[in-house]
Design goal:
The chain is mainly beta. The chain has one helix at about 135-145; strands spanning about 10-20, 20-25, 30-35, 50-55, 60-65, 75-85, 85-90, 100, 115-120, 130, 160-165.
């Protein structure tokens, strides 16, 4: 079995079926639930599924067959769904919104507005989060790839799709 990648698509084997969904092979981490609503029709034990791994509201590792608008190591232009006293939550195409803490906001995010963000795993909480302070990520990617000047990414308000893909982990 290959190493699991939080915040990315993984190819996982179906181990067993239960009333609430399928359990997928998670190796040392343990079996991973794919809730019933995401199970493709006709899937059976032994099949290999292409799933995205993330943490649910209770911080449990969970799988989905849905495709988020952004994955770890990518840039995207996302809409702010709501805010609270901790930060902003952006719509990334999954049931649980993507968190952007205040310390990672270039400007205070507002509901209904779109922002260019970079998705990464927070080293302290091990949660998938995003940042609109993209310059530091562009610089780190450029340095890692041996380029002296980072490429420029410009926001495009009418764009709803992924605009950059940097699949190597920075940290």
């Amino acid at each position: 079995m290959t190493k699991l990648q939080l915040g990315k698509r993984n190819q996982l084997k179906v181990l067993r079926e239960k009333e609430h969904g399928l359990y997928l092979e998670g190796g040392d981490i343990g079996d991973i639930l794919l809730p019933k609503r995401y199970v493709p029709e006709g899937t059976k034990v032994g099949d290999i599924l292409d799933v995205f791994l993330y943490l649910d509201q209770e911080e449990r590792l969970i799988a989905t067959t849905e495709h988020p608008l952004i994955e770890v190591g990518q840039f995207a232009y996302l809409e702010c769904a709501w805010t609270n006293e901790y930060g902003a939550y952006l719509n990334w195409g999954l049931m649980k919104d993507l968190f952007c803490p205040f310390r990672e906001q270039k400007v205070r995010m507002q509901r209904g507005k779109r922002y260019l963000v970079y998705c990464y795993i927070d080293d302290k909480t091990y949660r998938i989060v995003c940042s609109s302070k993209i310059e530091k990520f562009q610089k780190a990617i450029s340095e890692k790839n041996g380029k002296s000047k980072p490429s420029t990414l410009k926001p495009q308000p009418d764009r709803k799709v992924l605009i950059g893909d940097f699949s190597t982990r920075l940290f």
